[in-house]
Amino acid sequence: MKKYTVTEITRAVKGLIENTFADNVAVKGEISSFSRSPAGHLYFVMKDEKAQIKCVMFRGMAGKLDYSPKNGDSVEAVGELTVYEAGGNYQLLVKKLDYDSVGLFWQLFEEVRKKLEEEGLFAEELKKALPFLPKRVAVITSPEGAAIKDFLITMKNNDVVFEVDIWGVPVQGKDAVAPIVSALSKAGAMTDRYDVVVLMRGGGSLEDLAVFNEEYVARALAACEVPTVSAIGHERDVSICDFVADVRVATPTAAASLLGEGYRSAGRDLKDFGRRMINIMNQQMMTANQRLDMLISSVNSASPAKRVLSDRRHLEHMVKSLSLHMLQSVHTGKSRVNELSKVMAKLTPQNELERRKSSLSDYERRLKDALLAKKRTESDKINNLMQTVARYAPDRKAEKYKSKLDSLLYRIQTAARSEISDNKNRLTPLTAKLEALDPHNILSKGYSFVMKDGKPVKSVFDISLQDELEIRLNDGYINSFVTGKKVSEENDG
């Protein structure tokens, strides 16, 4: 094992480091343990999450700095990596010290983002939906920038019809914060004028887009009552306003395309609807033409004479059917009357007779109604036939057929009246017979009815001594008890 002195080891390490890092190196980190010597030299430590390195910047280089370093600054140091033999440690001999603006940007970005997120300004439930067809849009951007030109060109190319109000503001630098906040506050409150507010600018460096990470700008955007769209930078750019806005798109062109999507969709739907309506109309026209052709063919193939002849045969058949129906009805009525007469001869209570009489009258009425209805139906058919003939036949032929039809109608009416009169004549004797059998008429002549337990007494053998009987007279009842009875001589034989 070879033995070394401390100096030998230190010089070996120094040679190894300085040979490995022969050129200047750039190191990023955060300043800590910062101090300035009376001679003007700067001593500090640069660190990150896992390691640290001592740094020294001599007065000659430190005098060229345009700012005063302090603990916590994110910096980029350029210098020579050396070993300080007396201390036994390596260090960075700093020749140039730059403020790490990118590191600071992200630090501030994260601070604002975290703060607003904890307050709930990024919550999805706060996001407002964009209208399907916006009518007027407020665009907050630079009026001379490329962003507004891209936006308007995209609108024109997509045939979008909503109106645009441009709120001109600076979109870069600290001086842009107040105008942007003012425009957002005013336009965002005009719910009766604007459907959407778009905050927009083209791409740029992190420093160029820094204004859209300002807390005041983000809060003003979140406070808008009108739905908002953030269209800042390019695809790779992300800002605090993107998190706060109701909808985030990558570019101004994408914003114009998004707001016009409803109009394009409605246009497509309207075209589809128009095509469907044209197809439906064509189909209906085709169907109507087919029906018209069929009607024309039907009219041409059927002459008025044939039509009248056919209808005449139909009417003659109807007259025969009507006559047969009336005869059957009279026969049925007569049979029914005979049956009722037989039943009424057996039943003496007045209510039974009244019910049967009413039924017969109702039947007579319905028979008359049926005959009249049949007559009206046939009359209507004849009138319809006359109208049809008037439409299809020349005037002279129409008069000829009308005369024939009038004669036929007269014959039908005469036959119907004759049939009704015959039926009434047949019913008259039956009515007289019913009236003769009416118990009231019999009782008015001095006769009486004897009832026992509500039933007619037809024979002396139906009663016994001391039975209670009810004797019905024309004007009332007599209750009596049987004290004796005698069989007539005719029955004795």
What does this 3D model show about the protein?
The chain has 493 residues and is α/β, with parallel strands linked by helices. It has four domains: 6-99, Nucleic acid-binding proteins (OB fold (Dihydrolipoamide Acetyltransferase, E2P)), CATH 2.40.50; 105-265, 3-Layer(aba) Sandwich (Rossmann fold); 304-441, Orthogonal Bundle (Topoisomerase I, Chain A, domain 4), CATH 1.10.132; 448-492, no CATH class. The protein has 13 helices and 14 strands. The chain has helices at residues 6-20, 59-62, 101-118, 146-157, 177-187, 215-222, 240-244, 252-301, 304-346, 350-392, 395-436, 439-443, 489-492, and strands at 25-36, 42-47, 52-57, 74-84, 89-99, 136-141, 163-168, 196-201, 228-232, 247-249, 449-452, 455-456, 468-473, 476-481. The strands form three sheets. It has a five-stranded mixed barrel with strand order 1-2-3-5-4. A five-stranded parallel sheet has the order 7-6-8-9-10, with helices on both faces. It has a four-stranded antiparallel sheet with strand order 12-11-13-14, with no helix packed on it. The chain is elongated. The termini are far apart. Bidirectionally degrades single-stranded DNA into large acid-insoluble oligonucleotides, which are then degraded further into small acid-soluble oligonucleotides. Residues 121-394 form the Exonuclease VII large subunit C-terminal domain. It is an enzyme of class 3 (hydrolase).
CATH 2nd-level architecture of the largest domain: 3-Layer(aba) Sandwich
Main β-sheet, spatial strand arrangement: 1-2-3-5-4
Please report which band the strand proportion falls in: under 5%, 5-15%, 15-25%, 25-35%, 35-45% or over 45%. 15-25%
Mean pLDDT: 80
Q: In the CATH hierarchy, what is the superfamily of the largest domain?
A: Cobalamin-binding domain
Pfam family, one: tRNA_anti_2
Enzyme class: hydrolase
Catalytic activity: Exonucleolytic cleavage in either 5'- to 3'- or 3'- to 5'-direction to yield nucleoside 5'-phosphates
EC number: 3.1.11.6
